[in-house]
Design goal:
511 residues; alpha/beta; Serine Threonine Protein Phosphatase 5, Tetratricopeptide repeat; 4 domains; two-stranded antiparallel ribbon; 22 helices; elongated
């Protein structure tokens, strides 16, 4: 509870069926506010019960298909000097509470822009700013969805972090959420067809749903029709989404057109340089891709040194490690292994648990026949993903190179039950087994390979040779003969058959 000599804070929330998230949200903030106002718009789960457990004041209000209407309704119950707005699928960073208390002590400030860090599928984090803290009586909401705050007076920006988990739900939950938001956005656009902010949010939904053609169609119509200075942030984010979709479809020249349009309007837009780098990689223009990725890194460093208020949603804000990995890929394609290694080490320095960078670095060491550091990197991959097939295979390769055949066999046995492996890997595994004289296991891998590549006569030869090594001479002879029936000119099968015949004849004479 805040000291009563200091400005008081009221938490304001609107909720419906939020039992999954609400507890962690209130846990993050209940000790630091003076009251919690929660407006429930029709929950049928434990949402209201959970709110009561934290001492919140719960009010009921019928849903009117407008987030702003519900938020404005909640403000009538506020008694604090300041309003803090959170959603149930968010939580406040408790370490930033001292900064929160500091900014509300300024009598000239009426609104505080705070960073929202959005948890994304695949482990990414995007960032955008929104005025979530404002002086009571100085502001109200507008817009039926993705509402905006209208306030009077001075605003400041403070790095009081809010973590948002609502973009990383189960697929069926995400689909339901997108359908609801899209319906409200379409209603908004019926009333105002040129509202760029609403278009941006609708196009972002379509992009996330992988409706790439629709996104480009919508973007083309808007870019040609609506002046960008109506809402420059929404305009360039629409261009970015269209560029991302064009890139996903391999339409690199079209993606470039969207990117250059956005850069012309906003030269320091981080996400555009990222997609430009990916696009250049797709075009095999690796030097140009490195240049674009390094521009993105420079912008990221600038934002880290001095966080700056922006209306942009930054998708790759937390992807510095990924950018370094892409740069490494470009250097590898250019044959510059030293710079590739440096870039992968940079990625790992930024995110030590980044298994993909460890794997690529291990593969680089293995290619250079540097087995010990290769094994170290593959072991790091297996620490976080014990079933990583590439790391398991390469650990077996390292063990064979080091003549540690028992260790290699353990890795090969672990892989043997897997049926989800690229066929070419089965071929490699069969050869490893042959080298360490595990012929039964080798036959197993070769047969799995042939299920996908039945015309590989060299593999049929290998199976026959494994049978011969196991003393199953009849199976070996039949194997070589089968190859010669299908490919009479196969010299390897003919040579192996002749040598096996001579060996058997010699053994017969000895008997």
């Amino acid at each position: 509870m805040a000291d009563k000599s200091e400005p008081t804070i009221s938490l304001c929330m609107i909720v419906k069926n939020e039992e999954h998230f609400l507890g962690q949200c209130l846990e993050s903030i209940h000790e630091f506010v003076d009251e919690m106002i929660i407006v429930d718009t029709g929950s049928t789960d434990r949402t209201v019960e959970i709110a009561g457990e934290f001492g919140a004041k719960v009010y009921f209000h019928q849903w009117q298909n407008s987030f702003s209407e519900a938020r404005n309704f909640s403000l009538q119950f506020v008694s604090g000097d300041w309003v803090l707005q959170l959603d149930a699928d968010e939580k406040l960073e408790r370490k930033d509470i001292p900064l929160l208390n500091k900014v509300i002590s300024d009598p000239q400030t009426n609104a505080v822009f705070m960073p929202i860090l959005n948890d994304l599928p695949g482990g990414g984090i995007s960032k955008h700013y929104f005025p979530r803290l404002y002086r009571h009586g100085s502001a109200h909401y507008k817009g039926i969805v993705h509402n905006q705050l209208e306030f009077t007076g001075k605003s400041v920006t403070a790095e009081i972090r809010i973590y948002h988990y609502g973009y990383n739900l189960m697929p069926e939950q995400m689909a339901k959420k997108n359908e609801r938001s899209a319906r409200l956005l379409e209603k908004q656009l019926e009333e105002n067809p040129d509202f760029l902010f609403a278009w941006h949010n609708l196009i972002r939904i379509h992009r996330n749903e992988k409706k790439y053609d629709l996104v480009m169609q919508e973007a083309d119509a808007l870019i040609d029709r609506i002046p960008y200075d109506q809402d420059i942030a929404a305009y360039v984010m629409i261009a970015y989404d269209a560029a991302s979709c064009a890139y996903q479809k391999g339409l690199y020249q079209r993606a470039e057109k969207y990117c250059l349009n956005a850069i012309e309007k906003m030269p320091d837009y981080l996400d555009i340089y990222y997609v430009m780098g990916c696009m250049r990689m797709g075009m095999s223009r690796y030097g140009a891709a490195i240049s674009e990725f390094k521009k993105a890194l420079a912008i990221l460093e600038k934002l880290r040194q001095k966080p700056t208020l922006t209306q942009l949603k930054l998708d790759v804000f937390n992807s510095e490690h990924l950018i370094h990995k892409h740069i490494a890929g470009c250097y590898l394609s250019l044959g510059n292994k030293m710079e590739a290694q440096n870039s992968l080490e940079n990625a790992i320095k930024i995110r030590p648990e980044y298994s993909e960078a460890h794997y690529l670095l291990g593969a680089l060491f293995l290619e250079e026949n540097d087995s010990q550091p290769a094994a170290r990197e593959f072991a790091r991959v297996l620490e976080t993903n014990p079933e990583h097939i590439g790391a398991l295979v390469n650990m077996a390769v390292v063990a064979v190179r080091q003549d540690r055949f028992d260790v290699a066999k353990q890795y090969l046995l672990k892989i043997a039950s897997r049926d989800d492996i690229d066929p070419d890997i089965y071929h490699v595994l069969g050869e490893l087994c042959t080298r360490i004289k595990e012929f039964h296991l080798g036959i197993n891998f070769y047969e799995k390979y042939l299920q996908k590549r039945p015309q590989r006569f060299d593999v049929l030869n290998n199976i026959a040779s494994c049978c011969a090594q196991l003393g199953n001479y009849q199976a070996a002879i039949l194997g070589y003969q089968s190859v010669l029936e299908m490919e009479p000119g196969n010299e390897l099968a003919r040579k192996n058959l002749v040598e096996l015949g001579r060996y058997l004849q010699k053994q017969h004479c000895l008997v």
